[in-house]
Amino acid sequence: MRRSTIAAVAAEAGVGVGTVSRVLNGSPSVSEDTRRRVLEAIATLDYQPSAVARALSTGRTHAVAVVAPFFTQPSVVERLRGMSRTLSESRHQLILIDVERPEQRRDVFRSASVRGRYDALLTVSLAPTETEARRLAAAGVPLVLIDRAHPTLPAITVDDVAGGRLAAEHLLALGHRDMAFLGDEAQNAFGFDSSANRQEGFAAALAEAGHELRPERVILRRHGREAARAAAMELLASGERPSAIFATSDMQAIGVLEAAQELGLRVPEDVSVIGFDDVEAATYVRLTTVAQPLRESGALGARMVLRRLAGEEVESVQLDLQVVDRGSTAAHMGLVSGK
Amino acid sequence: MRRSTIAAVAAEAGVGVGTVSRVLNGSPSVSEDTRRRVLEAIATLDYQPSAVARALSTGRTHAVAVVAPFFTQPSVVERLRGMSRTLSESRHQLILIDVERPEQRRDVFRSASVRGRYDALLTVSLAPTETEARRLAAAGVPLVLIDRAHPTLPAITVDDVAGGRLAAEHLLALGHRDMAFLGDEAQNAFGFDSSANRQEGFAAALAEAGHELRPERVILRRHGREAARAAAMELLASGERPSAIFATSDMQAIGVLEAAQELGLRVPEDVSVIGFDDVEAATYVRLTTVAQPLRESGALGARMVLRRLAGEEVESVQLDLQVVDRGSTAAHMGLVSGK
DNA sequence: GCCACGATTGGAACCGCTTCCACGAGGAGG
DNA sequence: CCTCCTCGTGGAAGCGGTTCCAATCGTGGC
User: Fold this and answer.
1) From B55, which residue of chain A is nearest by alpha-carbon distance?
2) Model pTM greater than 0.85?
3) Which of A86, A98, B173, B181 holds its CA 20 to 30 A away from the CA of B89?
4) Residue B113 pLDDT > 80, yes or no?
C-alpha cells in the first residue's frame, strides 16, 4: 500500500499542491470553500503528511535530543519526566541518548552538528568542550545544560557547595562532630563535578565550626549504590566509626543504609545518614536528604530550550535546595541527650 | 554558517555527487584514489550528511519509537535500559513517547502511520486495536509488544497467571492460609491486564489448596505506591488482618511495607509481603518478589524489532518467572513453628 | 586493429513537503 | 470604462540525499 502524498490529495480535491500545503499549515489565505474540499480529500485518502519531508523542507525536525549519562539512575529519570511532559505539550519529540562511555559522549556532541536529526540539545550532567560548543552554536543548534554549569551556555543548576553546607549545618546542629563524606571518584571521564563541590561545601562548613573533615573521613568511590554499600561496610565496621555520614546522592546514601543494616547498626540511633537529591526512593526508605527539584529542573530545561528555538534569549537559573528530614538523622548521643 | 552539502564536497573533490554518495555508503565501485580524494574533501569541509535528507530519500529514518505508559515507573525504566543499549549498538535512535492519558495512546497509534517519523514501534504494556494494527501493518511499520500479549503481533510476555500461582505456592508453603491480594483497578483506560491475570493465578492456586481467596481479601486500587500504602493501612489496621499479602507489583508491595512500618507491624514476623517484578528497589528494601527479567525484555524487544526491520519473521517469546526470596516473607506463626 | 565487456563515473530524476513568484479574477477608485 | 489592488490559487524551485542509467575508458580476445 502506497502512502498517499500531498499530490494525491491535491488531485483528489482538484486543487494545486500549494493549496493543500496551505490548508495543512493553517494559512489564512485559503477560501472557506476550498479548505473544506481539501479537508474532505484528506479524510477520504486517509492522508498523513510525511514528517521527514516536512523537516527537510523547513529545516526543523521538531525533535529535541536529551543526552543523559546512565539515564536509568532515579535522579535522571525524574528529570526526564519533567522534560517529557513539557516537550510533548509543545508537540516535540524526545530523542533519548544514553551515554555510558566517554566515546559516546564525544559522538553526541560531534554528530549533533548534524542538523537534521534534532533541533536542539538538552544535556543532563554533561557539558561540551569549548570547541564542541562553538560548533554547535555555528550549526545553530541551541543547547541547554541541566546539572552542569558553563561559562557561556544557559544552564540549570543548584549550588552544590551550598548544598554541602546545608548537610553539614544539619548534622552540626544535631551535635555531630565526627562525620564522614561519601562521594564519587574525583577523576571521571565525564567531568562530573557536583560531588566534589558538595564535598567542598561540607568540609568548609565543618572547618568553620572547628571540626575539620579529616582525610580518612573522605571516601570516594565509583558512583552507585553498590560501591557505596561496600565502602560503608568498611567505614562502619572499623573501630572508630563516624557518628554521621553525608553521601553525595540518595542512591549512595541508600547503600550506606544497607551496610548499616547488615552490620546490625540502627539508623539514626547508631549512625546518622543524610543524602542528596530527594529521589522517590528516599521517601520510602525514610532518608533525610538535601532535596533538589529534579522534575522541575527537567521541565524548566525543556521550556528554556523551546524558548531558544523560538529565538528568545534565556538566562541560567539556579534552583533552591533544602534539607528534608525523614528521620535518618538524629542528635548525636555522645553530646546531646536524645531519645 | 551554511552547512556543507554533498554538492560542496563533490565540487571540492572534483567528482560528481553520485561518487560522494557512494563513498559515504561504502560502495565497492569507487577507485581507491577517488575515495581518498573524497574523504579528504569531507574532512576539510567538516561535512556531515543530513539525516533527514537521507531519510527522505531512502524511506528509512533509523529511529524506533518506544511507547510506554508512565515511563518513570521503575519497571518501565529497567526495560527501557535494555532497549537503549540494543538500539544504540545498531545505530538506531530511540524516540521516547510517554503515554499518560488515553488520548495520547490513540494519537500514537494513529500518527504512527506517519511513515517518516520512525521505522518501527516498540510498546510497553500497551496494544493497538485491531484497526490500528491493520493500519500499521499496511503502512509497513513493524510493531513488537512488550508485556502484553496479542493474537497476531509478536510479543514478549511472561505468564502472569503462572506468576500469581508462584506467589501463592510460595506463601502456602510457608503455612499461610489467610492471604490478601492487592492489585490494580480492574477497569483502566489502557486495557492493562497483568494484574487481573496475576490475581487469577493466585486465587486459583489458593482454591486448589482449599483456601479460597475471599472477596474482601481482594483490594484493587489505582496503580502506584501511594494508593497501595493507603489501602494496606486499612487492611492491616483492621481487626482481622491477613497473615500475608501479595501485591501485583513491587512498588505496590513497597507501599505495603510502608504501611506496616507506620502501624508498627514487623515484616515478616507480623505480616509477610511478596511483590512482583524485581525492580532494583526490591533489593534494598529486601522484598521477596516474583522476578521477571525486565531488562532482558527490553533488549529482546529491541532485537526483535530490528530483525523485523531487516525483513525477518519473529516469534513471540515468553520469559521465565521465579520467586526471589529476600526475607519479607516467613513461615506463618500460627501454624508453623519458627521465626 | 577492432569489438565487447567490466570498472568507474557523472548527473538527472526522485523522495514529499514548503514557499515564493506569477497570474487571473473581482472590486474599488477615478 | 480603465487602472490598480487584493485575494486566491497553481506550480516550479528548492531542501540534501540516493539511485539508476548512460557514458567513458581501458583491456583482453580474436
Assistant:
1) A52
2) yes
3) A86
4) no
Q: How confident is the model at residue A113 (pLDDT cuts 50, 70, 90)?
A: low
Alpha carbons B146 and B68: distance in angstroms, whole number = 10
Specify the DSSP element, H or E, that contains B254. helix B250-262
Q: What is the pLDDT of residue B337?
A: 42
Candidate from A188-192, B151-155, B258-262, B325-329 with smallest mean pLDDT: A188-192
B11 CA to D24 C1' in angstroms comes to 20
Residue with C-alpha cell 582525610? A215
**Number of Cβ within a 10 Å radius of residue B18:** 12
Dist. CA B250–CA B225, nearest whole Å: 9
Q: What pairs with residue A155 in β-bridges?
A: A145
Helix crossing, A74-89 with A250-262: angle to 10°? 150
Q: Do B139 and A81 count as a contact with CB atoms less than 8 A apart?
A: no
Instruction: Determine whether the interchain pair B115/A3 forms a contact, defined as Cβ–Cβ distance below 8 Å.
Output: yes
SS3 content of chain B, % helix, strand, coil (to 5): 45, 15, 40
Q: Which residues of B touch A1 (CB under 8 A)?
A: 138-140
The DSSP annotation for B272-335 comes to: EEEEEE--HHHHHTT-EEEE--HHHHHHHHHHHHHHHHTT-----EEE--EEE--SS----TTT
Q: Is A55 on the interface with B (CB under 8 A)?
A: yes
Q: Which amino acid is at A199?
A: Q
- In the predicted structure, residue A310 carries a pLDDT above the cut 70: yes
How far: B58 CA to D18 C1' (Å)?
7
Half-sphere exposure of residue A121, counting CA atoms within 13 Å on the CB side? 34
Q: Which residues of B touch A85 (CB under 8 A)?
A: 98
Residue with cell 512500618: B261
Residue-level pLDDT at A112: 61
pLDDT at B335: 47
Contact B56 A53 (CB under 8 A): yes
Q: Is the CB of B62 under 7 A from strand D?
A: no
Q: Residue A325: its pLDDT value, please? A: 98
